[in-house]
Amino acid sequence: MRKVLLAIMIVLGLLFCDWGTDNVAWATASSIVKTSSIDYGQGYSKVTITCTGDSTNGTFTSTSLPVPVGWITRVETNPGSPAPDSNYDITLTNANGLDMAQGNLANRSATVTQFIETVNWQTDGSLTVNISGNTVNSAIIVIEVYIGR
Fold first, then answer.
1. Which residues does residue 127 pair with via DSSP β-bridges, in sequence order?
2. Element containing residue 146 per DSSP (H, E)
3. Residues whose CB is less than 8 angstroms from the CB of residue 71 and which lie 6 or more positions away in sequence, other chains included
4. Residue 127's pLDDT is what?
5. Fold for the domain defined by 28-148
6. How many C-beta atoms surround the C-beta of residue 45 within 10 A?
Protein backbone atom coordinates (compact mmCIF):
# COMPACT_ATOMS: atom_id res chain seq x y z
CA MET A 1 0.00 0.00 0.00
CA ARG A 2 2.83 2.41 0.81
CA LYS A 3 4.43 1.74 -2.58
CA VAL A 4 1.16 2.50 -4.37
CA LEU A 5 0.73 5.73 -2.40
CA LEU A 6 4.33 6.73 -3.13
CA ALA A 7 3.85 6.00 -6.84
CA ILE A 8 0.68 8.13 -6.92
CA MET A 9 2.46 11.01 -5.17
CA ILE A 10 5.36 10.85 -7.63
CA VAL A 11 3.02 10.84 -10.64
CA LEU A 12 1.03 13.78 -9.25
CA GLY A 13 4.25 15.64 -8.53
CA LEU A 14 5.42 15.13 -12.10
CA LEU A 15 2.06 16.22 -13.51
CA PHE A 16 1.97 19.48 -11.60
CA CYS A 17 5.64 20.42 -11.86
CA ASP A 18 6.58 23.08 -14.41
CA TRP A 19 9.78 21.98 -16.11
CA GLY A 20 10.10 25.07 -18.33
CA THR A 21 12.43 28.02 -17.92
CA ASP A 22 9.53 30.18 -16.71
CA ASN A 23 10.26 29.23 -13.11
CA VAL A 24 12.91 31.92 -12.75
CA ALA A 25 10.67 34.67 -14.12
CA TRP A 26 7.75 33.52 -11.98
CA ALA A 27 9.83 33.67 -8.83
CA THR A 28 10.76 37.31 -9.45
CA ALA A 29 7.43 38.63 -10.73
CA SER A 30 5.41 41.22 -8.87
CA SER A 31 2.09 40.42 -7.29
CA ILE A 32 -1.04 42.36 -6.45
CA VAL A 33 -3.38 40.28 -4.33
CA LYS A 34 -6.64 40.96 -2.55
CA THR A 35 -5.66 39.67 0.88
CA SER A 36 -8.96 40.24 2.65
CA SER A 37 -12.43 41.61 2.26
CA ILE A 38 -14.33 42.45 5.43
CA ASP A 39 -18.05 43.16 5.40
CA TYR A 40 -18.79 45.41 8.36
CA GLY A 41 -22.55 45.11 7.88
CA GLN A 42 -24.84 48.08 7.35
CA GLY A 43 -23.56 48.17 3.75
CA TYR A 44 -19.87 48.90 4.41
CA SER A 45 -16.86 46.82 3.38
CA LYS A 46 -13.08 47.11 3.46
CA VAL A 47 -10.95 45.44 0.80
CA THR A 48 -7.25 45.03 1.63
CA ILE A 49 -4.88 44.71 -1.33
CA THR A 50 -1.25 43.72 -0.75
CA CYS A 51 1.16 44.63 -3.55
CA THR A 52 4.72 43.33 -3.88
CA GLY A 53 7.08 44.74 -6.49
CA ASP A 54 9.23 42.65 -8.82
CA SER A 55 12.35 41.37 -7.08
CA THR A 56 14.65 42.39 -9.95
CA ASN A 57 13.39 45.87 -10.95
CA GLY A 58 10.66 46.93 -8.49
CA THR A 59 7.89 47.24 -11.07
CA PHE A 60 4.30 46.19 -10.40
CA THR A 61 2.10 44.32 -12.86
CA SER A 62 -1.37 45.85 -13.26
CA THR A 63 -3.97 43.49 -11.83
CA SER A 64 -7.77 43.45 -11.92
CA LEU A 65 -9.40 42.37 -8.66
CA PRO A 66 -13.01 41.71 -7.66
CA VAL A 67 -14.49 44.20 -5.19
CA PRO A 68 -18.01 44.72 -3.87
CA VAL A 69 -20.28 46.86 -6.04
CA GLY A 70 -20.78 50.16 -4.29
CA TRP A 71 -19.30 53.59 -3.64
CA ILE A 72 -15.65 54.06 -2.73
CA THR A 73 -15.59 56.32 0.32
CA ARG A 74 -11.95 56.15 1.43
CA VAL A 75 -8.61 54.74 0.24
CA GLU A 76 -5.57 54.27 2.50
CA THR A 77 -2.04 53.52 1.29
CA ASN A 78 0.51 51.96 3.62
CA PRO A 79 4.14 51.54 2.57
CA GLY A 80 5.58 48.28 3.84
CA SER A 81 9.07 46.93 4.27
CA PRO A 82 10.96 47.23 2.07
CA ALA A 83 9.36 50.59 1.40
CA PRO A 84 8.72 51.80 -2.16
CA ASP A 85 10.35 54.89 -3.65
CA SER A 86 8.96 58.24 -2.50
CA ASN A 87 6.30 59.69 -4.78
CA TYR A 88 5.14 56.40 -6.32
CA ASP A 89 1.75 56.62 -8.03
CA ILE A 90 -1.38 54.46 -7.84
CA THR A 91 -4.44 54.42 -10.05
CA LEU A 92 -7.54 52.34 -9.41
CA THR A 93 -9.23 51.99 -12.78
CA ASN A 94 -12.64 50.61 -13.72
CA ALA A 95 -13.46 48.42 -16.72
CA ASN A 96 -13.42 51.49 -18.99
CA GLY A 97 -9.94 52.57 -17.82
CA LEU A 98 -11.22 55.54 -15.78
CA ASP A 99 -9.10 56.31 -12.70
CA MET A 100 -11.61 56.04 -9.87
CA ALA A 101 -9.27 58.07 -7.64
CA GLN A 102 -9.08 60.88 -10.22
CA GLY A 103 -5.31 61.23 -9.79
CA ASN A 104 -5.53 61.69 -6.02
CA LEU A 105 -3.33 58.65 -5.33
CA ALA A 106 -0.30 60.19 -7.05
CA ASN A 107 2.95 61.02 -5.22
CA ARG A 108 2.44 58.70 -2.25
CA SER A 109 4.74 58.71 0.78
CA ALA A 110 7.30 55.95 1.27
CA THR A 111 7.23 56.35 5.07
CA VAL A 112 3.73 57.15 6.35
CA THR A 113 0.18 55.93 5.86
CA GLN A 114 -1.86 58.32 3.76
CA PHE A 115 -5.56 58.42 2.91
CA ILE A 116 -7.98 60.14 0.62
CA GLU A 117 -11.70 60.48 1.16
CA THR A 118 -13.73 60.28 -1.98
CA VAL A 119 -17.00 61.56 -3.29
CA ASN A 120 -19.25 59.18 -5.22
CA TRP A 121 -16.81 56.89 -7.03
CA GLN A 122 -18.93 53.88 -7.88
CA THR A 123 -17.33 50.47 -8.47
CA ASP A 124 -18.67 48.05 -11.05
CA GLY A 125 -17.48 44.96 -9.16
CA SER A 126 -13.81 45.14 -10.10
CA LEU A 127 -10.86 47.52 -9.88
CA THR A 128 -7.56 47.36 -11.73
CA VAL A 129 -4.63 48.35 -9.51
CA ASN A 130 -1.82 50.14 -11.35
CA ILE A 131 1.36 51.22 -9.55
CA SER A 132 4.21 53.17 -11.15
CA GLY A 133 7.24 55.19 -10.12
CA ASN A 134 8.96 52.51 -8.03
CA THR A 135 12.41 50.95 -8.49
CA VAL A 136 12.86 49.34 -5.05
CA ASN A 137 13.09 45.56 -5.46
CA SER A 138 10.27 43.65 -3.72
CA ALA A 139 8.75 46.85 -2.31
CA ILE A 140 5.49 46.29 -0.43
CA ILE A 141 2.44 48.53 -0.53
CA VAL A 142 -0.85 47.79 1.22
CA ILE A 143 -3.96 49.52 -0.13
CA GLU A 144 -7.21 49.56 1.84
CA VAL A 145 -10.36 50.47 -0.11
CA TYR A 146 -13.51 51.27 1.86
CA ILE A 147 -16.76 50.72 -0.02
CA GLY A 148 -20.32 51.62 0.94
CA ARG A 149 -23.41 50.16 -0.72
1. 65
2. strand 140-148
3. 118, 120, 121, 122, 123, 147, 148, 149
4. 93
5. Jelly Rolls (2.60.120)
6. 17
Could you tell me the CA-to-CA distances from 122 to 58, 89, 95, 101, 148 in Å, in that order? 30, 21, 12, 11, 9
Coil, helix or strand at residue 55: coil
User: Which amino acid makes up residue 82?
Assistant: P
Domain regions of the chain by residue span: 28-148
Q: Which helix (H) or strand (E) holds 25?
A: helix 22-28
pLDDT tens per residue across all 149 residues of the chain: 655 544 454 544 433 333 333 333 333 577 888 887 887 878 889 999 999 999 999 999 999 999 999 999 999 999 999 999 999 999 999 999 999 999 999 999 999 999 999 767 889 899 999 999 999 999 999 999 999 98
Q: d(Cα 137, Cα 44) in Å, to the nearest integer?
A: 35
pLDDT in tens, 10-26: 544 433 333 333 333 33
